Amino acid sequence: MTFRRIYILWGLTAIFLLGLLLYPILPGVNLQPYWVLVGMTALFYAILASSWALLAGYTGQFSFAHMAFMGLGTYTAGILIRDTGIAPWMGTVAGVLMTGIVGLLIGYLCLRLRSTYLALFTIAFAEIFRLVVKAEVKITGGPNGLELPPYQRPEALERLLKAIFPYWDANPYVPAYYYMALLFFLSLLFMFFLVRSRFGLFFRAVREDEEAAAALGVHVVNTRVLAFVVSSMIAGFAGIVFHHFIGLIVPDQMQIVRMSLVIAMAVIGGSQNLIGAAIGAIFIHFALELLQEIRMPLAVLENLLFLENWGFSVDLQAGVLRTNAWRMVAFGILLMVTLRFAQNGLISPILDWLARKEAAEEVAKRFRAQREMDRVDDVEAVEETTTASTVTEGD
Amino acid sequence: MSRNGVLELEIRNVVKNFGGLQALKGVSLTIRGSQLVGLIGPNGAGKTTLTNIITGLLKPTSGEVWFNGERIDTLRPYHIARRGIGRTFQVTRAFRRMTVLENMLTPGIVKHPYMSRAELEKKAMEIMKFLTIDHLRFERAGSLSGGQQKLLELARLLMLDPDLIILDEPFAGVHPKLQRTIYNYIKRVREQGKAIILISHDMESIFTLSERLVVLNFGEIIADGPPEEVKNDPAVIEAYLGRDEEEEEDLRQAY
Amino acid sequence: MEWLIAEACGSFPYLLRLILEGLLIGVIYSLMALGLTLIFSVLNIVSFSHGEFYMIGGYVVYTVLHHFKQVPGLVAVFLAAVVTFLIGAVFERLFLQPMAKGQVDRPNEYAILVTFGLAFVLQFVMLGLMGPFPKKVPRFFSFPEIDLGFLRTTRTTLFLGKIPLPGSRIFAAIIALIALGAMLYFMYRTWTGWALQAVSQDRNAAAVVGINPLNMNTLAFALGGMLAGLAGAVLVSVFSWVPWVGVPASAKSFVIIVLGGMGSIPGSLVGGLILGVVESLGTGCWPNPATAQAYRDVFGLVIFALVLLVKPTGLFGRKL
C-alpha cells in the first residue's frame, strides 16, 4: 500500500489543530481584536453546532431551544453573580446545573412522545423564554442586556500561558480566544467519548427503531433525555463562558434566527458527525463575516446603486457592497439544498471517506488477531475465518 | 426466574379494543416452566396483538399479565425486556444504519452493563457464528439480505438472554436452508431451558416443534393442548383448518 | 391571592370584554391552526414555516396598500392569499414531493428541518426586502355609524352595551370567519375536499380510486400556507409587522394543534378559541401591566405543557 487516505486525514487534523493554536497571529488576523473575536465566536458556534448535532444526528430528536438553553444558563449565572455576589466560576456551575434541570423537565415532558413534539415544544419555549427575559427588565436587564463580570484567572496559569504565547496580552480577546478553544476541544472530546460509549450505541439504536430498541431492553425515554440534557448543558456551558468574556448578554442572542443559523451550520457540516458539524460552523461563521462586505471597484459599485432598494447597502466611500440579510438567505438556501441532496452534509462525507476504509481495516485487524487466539481451541473455525476475512478485506 | 426457579407467564382475562373493534375478548393463558408453545390462528385472530400486550407495546383495555410473580402489563416495554421476555418482529427490525456487531452489542450491554467490551464481543461472535452471520459483522445491517436480517434479529435476542422468547413468524419468507438454521436455533434455545412462544403460519413446522398448541380465533382461545389433540379438535378444524375446504365445497356446489 | 390578579379583573364587564376580545382573536388563531391541521392530516408533517406564511401574508397587504393607496383592503387580502398559496405550492413541489415519492432518507427528520429551513430563508428574504423596522398598516376599513341602542358603532370601534371592541379586530375576525366557512365548505362539500380527506385517511385507498395523492399533497400544503397567509393579512392592521412576527405565531398554532389534537379539524377550531380566550384573560388579569403583553404567550406554553402532561393526544386527537 503506497498511499493511504488516513494520512490525508491526519495531515488535515494537524493543520486544523495548528491553525486553531496559532489563529490569533496568522497573517490577516494579526492580533486585530475584531478578527480574534470573530475566531472566538466561530468556536462558540462550533460548540453549539456540534452539541446540537449530538442530539439531532445521534438520536434523531430536534431541539429548537438550544440557543434558549445557552441563554438560560448565562442569565442564571449572571443574575446569581449580580445578586448574591458569588464567584463567577460558581455562577457558571449553577448556570450549567440550571440548564440541566430545565432540560430534564422538558425532556421528560416531550421525549415520551414522537420526535415532532420536542421540536414543537422547544420552538415555543425558546421564543417565549426570550420574550419574558426581554420583558422582565428589573430582573434580567431587559433588551439592554445583562452584564457579566470577567473570570478571575489564576495568576500562575496566566504567567505560564504568557510564557507560551508571548502575545497573550496583546488584547483582551486573545486569552478569551484560547479559553474558548480549550472549551471547544474539551467539549468535542467529551462528546466524542460519549458517542463511542455504550450510550452512543443506545442513542443510535433508539433513533433507528424505537420499538425494537425497547424490546431489547434499551430505556428509550432515559436515553433520549440523556442526550437532550447533555446537549443542552454543553450549550449552556459554552454560552456562560463566552458571555463572561464578552461581558454582556442580550436577549436577542436567543432569537430563533440564531438557532436557525446553528442548525444550518450543523446540517451543512453534517449532523451525523460531531466534527463535521463543528467544522461546518467554523466555515460558515467565517464565510458570513467575509460576505458581509464585498469589496469592489467604484465603477462597478456605482452601477449597483439600485440594490439599495433591495436591502443591500452600497458604501461608495469605503468601496464595499454590504450584503446584510442576503448572505443569510444564501445560507438558508444552501441549508435546504443540502438537506434535499446531501442529507449527511457537505463536510462529514469527506471525513467519512478519508477515515472509513482505514477504520474498517483497523477493526478487522483486531478481530483477526482475536480469531488467531480463538483458533487454538476452535479448530473448525479456521476455514470460516479465512473466508470471513476475505469478505472484510473485499469491501 | 420466580422464587421456585420455574418460569411463569400468566395472562389473565386480557381484553383489547381498538376503537369499536374487539381484538382480544378475554384471553387467559398460563405458561409454566420451559415449554415451546405454538400460537396459531387465522389472520386477524389477535396473535400479534397478544404479543404486543405481553411485551408492553400495547396496554390491555382490561385484564392483567403476570410474569414470575410480578404484574407486567403496567410496565414499559424496556422494563419487560429486562425482566426476561424477548421477542422478534413479524417484519424484521434491525438497526439498519448500525453494523451487525453493534446490533448485537446493544442488548448485550443492556443485559451485562459491567461486562467488558471484549467479552461481549466474544459472546456476540459465538452467537453469530452459530447463526452463520459472523462474517457480516462489520456490514451495516441495512445492507443485509432479508434472511440475514432475520438471523441477526434472532442472534441479537440471545444477547439479551431472555427466559421467554416470542418468535413472531420466524419462517415467513425464509428459504429452506435458513429454515434449517432457525430450527437449530430453536432447538438450542430450548436446550438452554428457555420457554418459547412460536407464532407461525407454517403448520408443518409448528406441529413438529410445539409441545403445546394454543389456537386463537377472533380474539378468543378456542383450543389449548398437545398438538395431536388440537389437530383433531372439531372447533379448530372448523375455525381454522377447515375453512378453506368449506369454501371450496361451497364453490364446488355453486358450479 | 389578590396580588396575583389585577384589580380590574373583578368587574364583570371587564371580564366579558376580555372574553369577547379573546374570541375575536381566537377565530384568527383557529384559521391559522386549521391550515396547519390540513397540512398535518394530508402530508403527515408539521410545517415549521407556518408562521412565515403568516408573516408574508401581512407583508403582501402592507406592500400593496403602501404602493397603491386606492386599492381596497379586501383586494390586498386576496392577493396575500394568492401569493402565500403559490409559495406553498412551489415549495411543496420542490422539497416535499421528493419525500412523498420516497426519494429522501429519514423523512420525518427531513420534514422538520426542511420546513424550518424554509422559515429561515423566508425570514431573511423579507428582512432584505422590507428592512428590520416595524411596519404598520393603517386601518383599511371603517364602520358605518350605527346606533341601535344596545349595539352602537363609531368609525373605529363597536360598542356592545358599554363594552368597546376595536373595529380592526372585528373586521379581521369577520374575514377570518368567512375564510373559515369557505374552507370548511370546501373540505366537506366539494369533490376536491373529499379527495383531500380521503388522502388523509388512507393514501393507498385514495390512489386506487383515482385521486393523485401527490397533487393533493401540493394542494393541502398550499392551502395550509394560504390560511396562515390570510391570518397574517387580516392581522397586519392590528399589530406592527417585523420579519420575525411569524415565530410567536407559529408557536401559537403549535399550541393549538396539540391542544385540539394533531390532525383534528374541530380540534383546531375549538383550540384556537380556547387559546384566544385564555391569553386574553391571562393578559388582562396580569398584575403588572408593563409585562402583561410579554406573558401573553406564556399562557400558551403552559397549556402546551399541561396537554403534554395530561393528555398528549389533545382534545379530539387521533392516535399519533
Notes on the structure:
- The complex is a heterotrimer of chains A (395), B (255) and C (320).
- In chain A, α1 packs across α16, α3 (66-84) runs antiparallel to α4 (88-110) and α3 packs across α11.
- Chain A has a 3-stranded antiparallel β-sheet. A two-stranded antiparallel ribbon of chain A has the order 1-2.
- Chain A is mostly helical and 395 residues long.
- In chain A, 73% of the residues lie in helices and 3% in strands.
- Chain A is globular.
- Among the domains of chain A are: 31-255, no CATH class; 363-394, no CATH class.
- The model of chain A is unreliable at 373-395 (pLDDT under 50).
- Chain B is α/β, with parallel strands linked by helices and 255 residues long.
- In chain B, strands 6-7-8-3-9-10 form a 6-stranded mixed β-sheet, sandwiched between helices.
- Chain C has 320 residues and is mainly alpha-helical.
- Chain C has a single domain (2-309), classed as ABC transporter involved in vitamin B12 uptake, BtuC.
- Chain C contains 11 helices and 3 strands; from the N terminus they run ααααβββααααααα.
- Chain C has helices at 12-43, 50-67, 73-100, 107-130, 167-189, 191-201, 203-208, 213-235, 246-260, 265-285, 289-310; strands spanning 151-153, 157-160, 163-166.
- The chains are: A mainly alpha (395), B alpha/beta (255), C mainly alpha (320).
- The A-B interface holds A 198, 201-202, 204-205, 208-209, 211-221, 360, 363-364, 367, 370, 381, 384, 387-388, 391-392, 395 and B 55-57, 76-78, 81-82, 86-87, 89, 93-98, 102, 105-107, 109-111, 113, 118, 121-122, 129, 134-139, 156-157, 159-160.
